[in-house]
Amino acid sequence: MKKLAFLLSLLLIVVPTQGFAQSSSDNHVSKDQIDKILSIYQNVSKQEIMKEINQTSKALGISKGKVADQMYSELKEQQDLAAKEEPIRIASPGSGGTTVIDSSTKGNIFYETAATALIEHGHVGMYYTADTLVESVPSYGVRSLNRSNKKVGEGARIMTVSNTTSTEKNSSANWAYNRIGESYSYNFATNRLTSCTGDKNCSKLVWCAWKNVTGLDLDSNGGLGVYPKDIRDHSRVTAIKYY
User: Fold this and answer.
1) Domains, the chain, ranges and CATH?
2) Which N-terminal stretch is annotated as signal sequence (predicted)?
3) Which residues, including other chains, have CB under 8 Å from residue 161's CB and lie 6 or more apart?
4) Per-residue model confidence as pLDDT tens digits over 112-128
């Protein structure tokens, strides 16, 4: 009964927030749909995409075709948003911008423009201490690093979650820090529906940290996936430093 209630709640969250395209109402995924997804989701194989589609369709009780349309719609939206930003690669510490990120309060969130999986979706992480960051990046997974090794560029910002207590911020940061060592996942398209334990990308790490500890959903627009810009644009997330 609890599982059924959980799945029904996901339907209420996911389906209304971002309308599904109407081209695929049956349970078939066309080659054209897969090719469109692969065109902007290039570090994920066709087999991995089909696995995500099948799992999401089963969990939410909606057709595979509609899941594929929704995945593409959200990925394309993120690509279009990122076209306005300067891409910064985060493959290794300090490889992105030119300005060392400032210190900030434990539990605060940082955002930077980024290019990961060949889609410029942005990057987020958290402050574990004033000078220690925790993030999830390709090749490393969840890791900590000193802020002196994080160089950002134009478009980056430091943010705080408003109307929260220091205890909530500390606990959320602790949760993220305790994930160090978990592997990276390229699955942004359906990461709201995957477990908070195990492989995760940057936005999944921050989203789970706040959702698990406080119940606060920092995804600004719902959908199947939570992306860095979704967290950046949430009404409770306020920028306190711009670059």
Assistant:
1) 31-84 (no CATH), 99-242 (3.90.1720.10)
2) 1-21
3) 107, 108, 109, 168, 169, 210, 216, 218, 236, 237, 238
4) 987 543 456 789 999 99
